[in-house]
Amino acid sequence: MVNLVGVLHGERAEPYGAAFAAAHVDLPRRVVASCQRTGLRRLLHMSALGADSAGPSMYLRSKGDGEKVVRESGLDWTIFRPSVVFGPDDHFLNLFAQMQKMAPVVPLACAQARFQPVFVQDVAEAFTNAMTTPSTIGRAYELGGPEIYTLEALVRFAGRASGHPRPVLALPDALARLMAVILEHMPGEAMMSRDNLDSMRLDNVLSGPVAPELGIRPVSLESVMIRALAARSRNAQLQVHR
């Protein structure tokens, strides 16, 4: 059994709101119960780097409680804790590229927060390899790429690669939280929330190298996303001229 479910946003509550509880705690509990009921032993669980029941954000606290459910299940579990995951169709770098296409300047909260982005294909290969590697049972693995970036560096990279580089304005904490409150109440899915800011109080970087038994050699963000962002920008231009 593989559980990949996760949400980034939800209503505020202590220790976390209903959306976080449903996706990160209640669902793993149901998955575990289903495995126990059917006799399925193997469980691969997607958590998050920094997951901690006492963490600074609802996201990290709920992910930590979800891990606890898995660890106490009695199943043959493996937990994965990735940094932010990137890929050609992600909602991370592509969002930053789209913002710079539309706006003359990018106001940015937590500009110096640090991340170690990992390619989605590397994450998939880690799951696949662990499935048939008994030594990964009962282990939690951090997943990240070969480079560490600040959030500001990632935003600037997305702008350059997509052909729409814009000035980045790093916001002080008070203005960042005000912007997050406004974005939380806008129609549609929130681009940023106060809980995201709380998560970024912790550096999202690995404590050491990726474990060799996972059998992956993480690829760099640039090797994948320069062409992906440039191609998406060209495709958008073609659509305008059709």
Please explain how this structure is put together:
This protein has 242 residues and is an alpha/beta fold. The chain has a domain at 86-116 and 146-208 and 219-242: UDP-galactose 4-epimerase, domain 1. The protein is 45% helix and 14% strand. The protein has eight helices and ten strands. The strands form four sheets. The protein has a four-stranded parallel β-sheet with strand order 1-2-3-8, with helices on both faces. It has a two-stranded parallel sheet with strand order 4-7. A two-stranded parallel ribbon has the order 5-10. α3 (93-102) crosses α5 and α5 crosses α8. It is globular and about 55 Å long.
Kindly report the CATH topology of the domain at 86-116 and 146-208 and 219-242. UDP-galactose 4-epimerase, domain 1
* Number of strand segments: 10
Using the 3D structure, state the CATH architecture of the domain at 86-116 and 146-208 and 219-242. Answer: Alpha-Beta Complex
User: What is the percentage of strand-forming residues?
Assistant: 5-15%
Average residue-wise pLDDT: 94
